[in-house]
Amino acid sequence: MARTPRLSPPPWLTAGLRPTAAPIPWAAVARASIALSAPLAVGLAVDQPVYGALVSMGALAGVIGDTADAYRMRFYNIAVPQVFGALGVTLGSLVFGQGWLAVIVLTLVALVSGMISSIGAVASVSGLLLLLNAVVGAGLPMPEPWWRPPLLLGLGGVVVLVLTLLGWPLRRGIPERSAVAGTYRTVADILEAAGTDAYDEKRQAVTTSLNQSYDLVLARRTRVHGRTPALVRLLAQLNALIPLVEAAPAAHLSARRLHRPLPAEIPAAVRELADAVEEGRTGTPVLDLPEATRPSEKAVDQALRHAATVVHAAEPNPYNVDDRLGRPAALRVRVRRTARAVLFSKESWRYGLRLALCIGLAQALVSLIDVPRSYWVALTVTFVLKPDFGSVFSRAVLRAAGTAAGLVVAALILAEVPRGWWDVPVMFVLAALIPAFSAKGYAFQTAAITPVILLLSDLLNRQGFDLVLPRLYDSLIGCGIVLVFGYLLWPESWHSRIGDRLADAVADSAAYVNRAFCSPREEDPAARVRARRVLYRDLSVVRSEFQRALTEPPPTGTVASAWWPLVVAVERIVDATTAARVRVDHGAPAPDPAEVDAVEQQLRELADGLRSSDVLVEVRAELSGDEEGVLAPLRHEVTAARAIATPRRETD
User: Fold this and answer.
1) How many angstroms separate the CA atoms of 105 and 270, rounded?
2) What is the C-alpha separation between 60 and 425, in angstroms, rounded?
3) pLDDT of 406-454, one tens digit each?
4) DSSP string, 316-380
5) What crossing angle do the helices spanning 199-224 and 71-94 adopt, rounded to 10°?
6) Are 149 and 54 in contact (CB under 8 A)?
7) HSE (side-chain half, CA atoms, 13 Å) at 7
8) Distance between CA 29 and CA 32 in Å, rounded?
9) What's the rounded Cα separation, in Å, for the pair 295 and 633?
10) Which residues does 390 contact at the CB level (< 8 Å), separation at least 6?
């Protein structure tokens, strides 16, 4: 008898409900507990619990925004959003109870918040806090005069900032050094995985780690380049890894062809370099490496010896150090580019208008309709409709699930714990859950933040247990507004643009093939390295966008699932191109220009095919050449990519 299949929700719907494996950030847990509970204790001690609650609210924003590693970046991540938060609560409190005026002001704030969120991580948090505090200010009674609420909220951010910077004298420079050492360890892992099925996963880890390390070091270097030897040395150590990263694809192809992994001494030597970076050791490097015979082995050997020399050098030349993505532009240039991107970007306006529409509807429901609704509706819209938090649809589902779980905890606290000094130990425990759960996923972060906000809200309006069920209804209404007016009514939700982004990546891969094998007169090794780094970074972004699209309901999720193998294929094409270039650099015969042109042409045709259709389309795959030549693996990867892009025909 056939078994009836079990009814279960689709994977795209439940993906976010599975906790992500991540270590608990104990230092962040301690900071959050102190930063949110101490203001409550002080407020109760001076008989001003409302003031204590506002300071804790400001601290909550600081805790959520403290996501960087380097102290300079953490300072900006915490301090800059607090300025926007202070502006937001001021605007909101000025229109508290003003009906249509509150709707108009919050709608305009939402438009600005959405548009600036596309600039970067700090701007995204700033936009979130601007709108978040405006909603709270317009929805909760604030103490007079008007300047007191922003001052108290800002004081909460200062508390988090002071607690964060307490470790700066002892740990200055350690996050950057640890990041660079971690990148060396990911390179050791990819060399160890050469020739195995684990190679692709390890390559992704290398790309992510390189991006993070460069961002971390360059965040400080833009102001102190040439004056801080420690940063110059870290940048030199990062740059020394690039030849080793480039040699890895050649080593992988060779190991797979010969069914023989790299000698264990090679990844062990890279891990020893990682330890030297982390500990700041200098001196004469000692390497005991096996003899290299083939071009790929010579490439790895030469790159490893170069990296060892740079890592152990006491004083790298500051005038011979540059990052592999180009020197950072001047501040005025970056400001001009950013302003242009915000004001003239279709994506910026599209998201700003979508957020403004949803906030306007939510605030109209709160301000104009005589039903017991609250600021929580607009607050839910603010959290759910964030472009860099993941899929809008799945976030709405996860927000509802997380809020329900958080409300269960809040209900128990509001029903059983008396208000007053008991709030301090309760807040100490609840605040600790925020950084611990945030790393597990959006639903878990929502479940941790919900009881904290409810407890602080109760200190402002004293509704007690009566807060719980209305907040659940408000959350469901907010999620409904987002799903209908922020998702279903926007064509881009149903007609994904991920194919265009993938097509751009394929076209960039074609350009990289051309650059890798251009004539000697046109060859620029530094430009080629920068192009490869930019391409890998762009592919990492494409991969993230596809992974986010996989959590969307059909048709977006279905299209992303069908095209996902092509994302992997493009990454392998870039790897094969790099491997061929490395082999040529270490003695292998250069390919015929006609072969290079044929590969480039095939990739450009593939890119054009992807742009012309929302489904996988059939394209030509006519590549021939020397099977013993350096381009043979690249031709095979291109042929495989073309096969993936060709629809399967049904057979009778």
Assistant:
1) 57
2) 16
3) 878 888 887 778 878 888 999 999 999 888 888 777 778 888 888 888 8
4) --GGG---TT-PPPPHHHHHHHHHHHHHH-HHHHHHHHHHHHHHHHHHHHHHHS-SS--THHHHH
5) 80
6) yes
7) 0
8) 5
9) 15
10) 16, 442, 548, 551
